[in-house]
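Good morning C.,

I know you're traveling, so I'll keep this short. The sequence:
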Amino acid sequence: MKFKQLTTYIQQTNDVLRSGAGKAINRFLTVRNWLIGFYIFEFEQKGEDRAQYGEKLLQSIADVLREKSLSYRNLRLFRKFYQVYPQIGQIMPDFLHKNRALSIEQSPIAKFQNNENEDFEIWQSSIAKSFDTQILVPPEKILSELSYTHLVQLFPIQDPLKRAFYEIECIKGSWSVRELQRQIETLYFERCGMSISPEKLFAQIQNNAEISEINDVIKSPFTFEFLGLKAKDVVEESDIETALITQLQDFLLELGYGFCFEARQKRILVDGEYFFVDLVFYHRILKCHVLVELKNERFKHENIAQLNTYVSYYRHNVMHSGDNPPIGILLCTDKSDELVKYATAGMDNQLFVSKYLIELPKKEEWMKFIKHELSR
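The tokens, ready to paste straight into the viewer:
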């Protein structure tokens, strides 16, 4: 063996086993989420005491379990997963048989492995029978080739033919999640239907597609939740932005304007997609949440849209009775002197707006802070 062969063997071993580990994590994550969706759906249909929970079932489950990966919104996604992909039930007994560690006596998982017990033959359920099996991508392909994060992007597609199209193209091109999102948003399916030469469009899309990497699976927020890792580890930031956020946090707390720190890189889930708010405070004088977004770049109009999304989310999902509407603050660097721009949403009460202007740091203080930090 020569040295070049040695390094080649090591590199190949690392790549193959690393990829296998990532795929194994994704398979277990996907199976777990599907099984939980199945349990929920079955309980809603046949549960002995289902009537006492009704529409509050998912929230009741989340309140009892108190795990981030089993939050209300995730449980809702799991149920949707089972409803959209009941065909995965075809391969579930075989998967569980090969992974005997999952066999817990008297549990639904154990009953999955008993072929004589038809109560848990999921493929025989009414929801599965409603599917046209001729246009379904084989469940083995779904489980082995697509990450759960990919599948979440496909949940909203109601047309099975359209969904199968994206599944096939995504698998064939090894698309990243971003690429799948981009093709759905740019109506790839519809463009193919209208194209005179769809094969040319196929070739063009696949040649320019962003390829999925194993890091995309490992760093998915769903994977981090499944493994019990901290949300902040999911977010990648440049060193300078990280340093700026750290200093900004200290800056606001030291000013003494009533800021109470709540979270950094606060994760929120909107329609199956995760977003992260740089800093979240609660202001004890204004009695409202203050969301701060810091952009280490020139101001762009999409920054306002992003912050307004976060503010609207907090107004509808987090704000309690007695709270004032949340405030959004956008800090941008720029070559001109106007370094700081504010974005506010939902502040209809003019008295509250006036108080907001008094209690928050003045614009000059924000400008001084950012100029100082950038010059370090």
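Safe travels,
E.
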